[in-house]
Write a structure and sequence with these properties.
Porin, 16 strands
Length: 474
């Protein structure tokens, strides 16, 4: 809690000490976004000052400022965004560490760190009224083994997290979709994803193997990071509630391997296969539970196809992503219809999209309105707590002209409970927030959520939830 208060004071001091900083930064960002090649897509021959250099771009490269808006902040970073270039000077509080970060980048070593805290309370509704904070301090080191050891296309990545706080949903509201996405179950320091990654065929094929988290690679929309609700951020939460092996890091990782293939710039095909150890997926033993079998059996297999609209380097249209995917788990599960019995196998399918529908500025500008929607079905009611899930919303960057980097977001999600859960129908969450971007490394986001029929029973009053997030990239 003390760390959270320090960060709030830091926000106030930054604003008071230099009130023109925000406006100056917004001007720089607006100019860079309107340029044909946005930040994060620079070539090795002309990197930004203080920026880790990347491999030369070609016609098929995605605009990473769309797919990976915050590659310097490691919390639940999409696996494709790990090791992507960013501007040390502009995008981090610690800047270049007196040149040390640039020296590491020359050897292919890119360390990142970030902290986010969500302070939330429910003044009305829920089981009782209360206030909690949840926070995550994350570190990740990406090592380009081509630069370090001369092995073309090979990299090694390892991360760790320090999780603190409590869940307002568990303590006071009593709902299923957590209102704090940074909360991960318990206070702990743990080892997170740790894997080798190999790129082949000019980067068209990427293969990763090691300690991985399926929900850091599948069922993710870039826009989902704008929300507090764990029902939205980072994936439709019904997928992980129905099957714990579909884990997210933090808190949990599993042994696995995955591949991403891009046959043409607009199409991306991803597949993954993972162990189903429930203890590892939950993040037990501080992330060092390396056992393959602990009451589990079989594997989790995931497949996904993405259609990427206007996300190539030379694209002039408005960007979008259209995704379909699913998983099959051959493990055994506790039966919802017959307590004490077990059921074999589980599966799920999902479809989601996000599309910019209005752009403020020329090609490459990220200012404008993006709409999104998602649907997830796990129609095995004897296993899946929430067989039906759907949601949608919109997010507007630069809604206020003078605040070009701020993001206003609105979203609604609904999950319908299994018919085997007594007296439960559905739970709905409405969320609205406004991210105030003070600098590229510091943001403050007030948030409002309204939880309708917590846990679906109607026995708990609808809850009004108010909160604040402070996020810092070190």
């Amino acid at each position: 809690m003390g760390a959270a208060l320090v960060l709030v004071l830091l926000v106030v001091n930054v604003s008071r000490a230099n009130p023109s900083l925000t406006v100056a930064r917004e001007t720089i960002e607006e100019e860079s976004r309107d340029a044909p090649a946005p930040m994060g897509a620079q070539s090795e021959s002309n990197p930004l000052p203080g920026q880790a250099s990347a491999a030369p771009d070609d016609e098929g490269d995605k605009v990473w400022s769309v797919r990976c808006p915050t590659p310097a902040h490691p919390h639940r970073l999409h696996i494709e965004c790990i090791g992507k270039p960013f501007d040390f000077v502009a995008d981090t509080l610690s800047r270049d560490w007196a040149g040390f970060r640039a020296e590491l980048a020359e050897f292919g070593i890119i360390p990142t760190a970030g902290y986010a805290t969500q302070l939330m309370g429910n003044p009305s509704g829920g089981k009782s009224q209360g206030f909690t904070y949840a926070a995550a301090f994350d570190m990740l080191v990406a090592v380009d083994l081509h630069k370090l050891l001369g092995v073309p296309g090979l990299s090694f990545n390892v991360g760790a997290s320090w999780l603190t706080g409590q869940s307002l949903s568990t303590e006071d509201i009593g709902n299923v979709f957590g209102v704090q996405s940074v909360f991960s179950g318990s206070e702990t320091i743990s080892l997170q994803q740790m894997f080798f990654q190999q790129q082949l065929f000019g980067g068209a094929l990427t293969i990763a193997a090691g300690r991985l988290a399926p929900a850091n690679a599948f069922a993710i929309l870039p826009v989902s990071g704008n929300y507090f609700s764990a029902g939205i951020n980072p994936v439709p939460e019904s997928l992980s509630l129905n099957d714990g092996a579909f884990a997210q890091s933090p808190p949990g990782v599993e042994w696995g391997a995955q591949a991403i293939y891009q046959p043409i710039p607009k199409v991306e095909v991803s597949v993954g296969i993972y162990n189903t150890n429930p203890n590892a997926a939950a993040g037990n033993k501080h992330g060092v539970d390396f056992a393959l079998q602990q009451g589990n059996r079989g594997v989790l297999t995931v497949a996904q196809v993405d259609y990427l609209v206007n996300q190539t380097q030379n694209a002039t249209g408005m960007p979008g992503q259209y995704t379909i995917g699913g998983f099959y788990d051959s493990n055994t599960f506790s039966s919802l219809s017959n307590p004490g019995a077990s059921v074999s196998n589980n599966w799920a399918v999902y479809a989601m999209f996000q599309q910019m529908v209005f752009r403020d500025g020329g090609p490459g500008s990220q200012k404008g309105l993006t709409v999104w929607g998602e649907l997830a079905l796990s129609n095995k009611a004897s296993v899946s707590l929430i067989p039906y899930f759907w949601g949608g919303g919109l997010s507007y960057e630069g809604l206020i002209t003078a605040r070009a980097s701020d993001i206003a977001s609105l979203g609604v999600i609904t999950g319908r409970f299994s018919r085997h859960v007594p007296n439960a129908s559905s739970e709905t969450v409405i969320e609205a927030n406004y991210q105030v971007t003070l600098t590229s490394w510091l943001s403050v986001t007030p948030d409002f959520q309204y939880v309708i029929r917590p846990s679906g029973t109607g026995r708990i009053k609808n809850a009004v939830v108010l909160g604040l997030q402070v996020a810092v990239t070190f």
